[in-house]
Amino acid sequence: MLGWRLLVSATLIPLLFGLFYLDQRAGSSAPWLLGLCWLLILRGTWEITQLLTVRNLKPGYPLVCLLSLLICNAAWLPWLVPSLQTGANDLQTLSLALLSVTYAISVLLLFLKNAIRFQEPGQTMEILGAELLGVSYVGFLLATLAELRWVAGPQTGYLALGALIISAKLGDVGGYTFGRLWGKKKLVPRLSPGKTWMGGFGAIFGASLGAWLWLQFTPSLFNDSWSAPAWYWSILFGAIIGVVGLVGDLCESLIKRDVGKKDSAELLPGFGGLLDLLDSPLYAGPVAFLLWKLLPLVTVAS
What we know:
The protein has 302 residues and is mainly α. Helix content is 72%, strand content 4%.
């Protein structure tokens, strides 16, 4: 199973970065990334609504999917409408504002829908909670993750997004490898019996190594005036993403454990569903955005 996981990862990651290459050449509007986000939302909202269709939880897939798509599209609007493109910094501020307001309106619409459909006590709050979770977990977090495409301006390209994906997924690989080879003491046995403390250390090591390699060799590919940051900033970024990604994995396990499922879906043997692949990047996305604003992750030539 370890070999299969490594093989699938070695296949999916180059395909993903091939798409990123095409999107980079298409300009700052990032049409290929937008299309990928649509596909991820269509599949991801289906998985989470299916997961949560238990007990009194009966979330509606069409509405959760539609609102998630609206949140994503709202975030893209400044990059697609020429009349809004007054400046790079203003564009990201506007993008984040539209994302946040659309998410807030989505919450209001979900409350309204459930208020209109209310019949009797005992079910409405469960359905509303499941739908809010679906829109938040897939729509809002994915749109926030995509904001890394422009976090340092249009020239950021896939430097920041690539750093997150490489860190998070190498953290997953490191955690799985260390856990399988040397893991003994369980980390959170009731929530995720397969997670060990040694696996946690492996996640931090893998994520730190991935961040250092990516930020050491790729900044100049995205901007001629950029060079690698000091090694300790790269390691710090990776270590934080490793920890947060591990927590994201555990939080997705919380959803699955509570509804009595092992995987979010049967998409890839050994990996589970799409949400099992996206758990750590989705959870770490907002943290990565904040780190790019706070840490000197590129050095600008004078």
